[in-house]
Amino acid sequence: MVGAGPVGLLLGRELHRRGVDTEILERRGDPGGGSRAIGVHAPVLAALEASGITERLLASAVRVRRGEARSGSRLLGSVRFDRLRIRFPFVATLPQSATEAALTGDGPIVRRGTAVTGVRRDGDRMRVLSRGADGERETPARIVVVASGSAGRELAYRPGAVRVRSYADRYLMADTAVAVDDPTAIVRLERGGVLESFPLPGARRRYVAWDAHPDDDRTGARLDRLRRVLSGAGEGDAASRLVSASGFRVRRVVVARMRRGALVVVGDAAHEVSPIGGQGMNLGLLDAATLAPLLAAWVRAGAPPEQALARWERRRVASARTAAALASMNTALGRPLGPRADAARRAALRAVLAPPTGMLFAHAYAMGLDRDA
Ligand SMILES: Cc1cc2nc3c(=O)[nH]c(=O)nc-3n(C[C@H](O)[C@H](O)[C@H](O)COP(=O)(O)OP(=O)(O)OC[C@H]3O[C@@H](n4cnc5c(N)ncnc54)[C@H](O)[C@@H]3O)c2cc1C
After folding, report:
1. Does residue 95 have its Cβ closer than 6 Å to ligand 1?
2. Is the pLDDT of residue 125 over 70?
3. High-pLDDT (> 70) share of the chain, %
4. Buried b (16+ CB within 10 A) or exposed e, 187-216
5. What is the model's pLDDT at position 107?
6. What domains can you pick out in the chain, each with its CATH number?
7. What does pTM read for this prediction?
8. Which among 292, 296, 299 has a CA at the least distance from the CA of 316?
9. Contact 14 CB / ligand 1 (< 6 Å)
10. pLDDT tens digits, residue range 227-286?
């Protein structure tokens, strides 16, 4: 397997649990890699319950049962995850590093500091070429799974074969301590663009704001801009506590094929969706959770379960398309608008977040539209 991000770690662990001899090659020397995904959704919590991972995640996560859409001091509507009739009626929030830590241990060996440089077919076997502290190596494998994120996509697809759509939108992001530990997710839709605020464990919050001046990417300039956005939104306390702010951009990728023979692609290597919507990691975790039993059956039988794999691929590509469409809608909804368009946006949101359509929003944001939910 290529990559020990959340998706590779989960798949490795699930295969190991089923007795499949698995090795993960990871180019980074140490775990970690910055704060990214913070929300784990209900279908993932349900899929990981049997393996005990859900209990580990929930031990430290905040359970977000409710979200609010606001504009200035006005409440436009609520998204009530707690009213969904599902096993886990909330979004569990915790830093991605904590999710990865919960997925680590009881799994296969992770060979860190080893970058995979190529994957090739050799008769009915695969060969994985890698470079690490012990030099160049070639490892034979029956099945290769690429879980490399976008960084290693070219291991599985020819250059230019995958359509990458880059959005012009840029965002500022920071995790910071706050004075009031409120477990409500808040999305502020202001004329100057969206400001999202999500609870994190330990009286902290994640802030994400549309960035009006992304060209000035000096660390101090970003921090000043995010402080100004927070202060303008009445979050003066959080603004004063910020010590740094990062920036990110948004891309959309959904491949048409996730498997060719004994090469399978999962997670961000196969699909990237805008973080404005928070479903990217969850999509990949569901790829892994649903693929593991099929790969285990393949290894046991010595032949691929073709029909089940084809169904898996169709479901996962369809789920990625749905999540990407939802994320694109969120991205568009959070752009700066003039006064009349902003008023129309507020009115539309008030209408759709009211019952009964409000429950459809909660269902969609909780990943209820995923084919494996
Ligand atoms: C700012 C931001 C916020 C986000 N927030 C959310 C959120 O709230 N909810 C959500 O669901 N998603 C979110 N996401 C998306 C989420 O972070 C990704 O979808 C998730 O990390 C993908 O996991 P992965 O394991 O597929 O890939 P990655 O996390 O990218 O891991 C891939 C691993 O493969 C390794 N690798 C790459 N190439 C090679 C190679 N050639 N050889 C060996 N190893 C290799 C990398 O070092 C890495 O460790 C966010 C993303 C960003 C940028």
Report:
1. no
2. yes
3. 100
4. bbbbebbbbbbbbbbeebbbbbbbbeebee
5. 87
6. 6-64+93-164+253-365 (3.50.50.60), 167-250 (3.30.9.10)
7. 0.97
8. 292
9. no
10. 999 999 999 999 999 999 999 999 999 999 999 999 999 999 999 999 987 899 999 999
Q: How far is the CA of 78 from the centre of ligand 1 (A)?
A: 30
366 CA from centroid of ligand 1 (Å): 20
Closest ligand 1 atom to residue 267 Cα is: 26
pLDDT in tens, 29-43: 988 767 799 999 999
For ligand 1, say whether the CB of 149 is within 6 Å of any of its atoms.
yes
Ligand 1 contacts CB of residue 6 (under 6 A): yes
Q: What is the mean pLDDT of the chain?
A: 95
What is the whole-number distance in angstroms between the Cα of residue 123 and the centre of ligand 1?
A: 32
Q: Closest ligand 1 atom, CA of 198?
A: 8
Pocket test for ligand 1, best of 30, 268, 279 (most atoms within 8 A of CB): 268
Residues 140-186 have pLDDT tens digits of 999 999 999 999 999 999 999 999 999 999 999 999 999 989 999 99
Alpha-carbon span 134 to 132, nearest angstrom: 5
Residue 296 beta carbon below 6 angstroms from any ligand 1 atom: no
**Residue 148 CB less than 6 A away from ligand 1:** yes
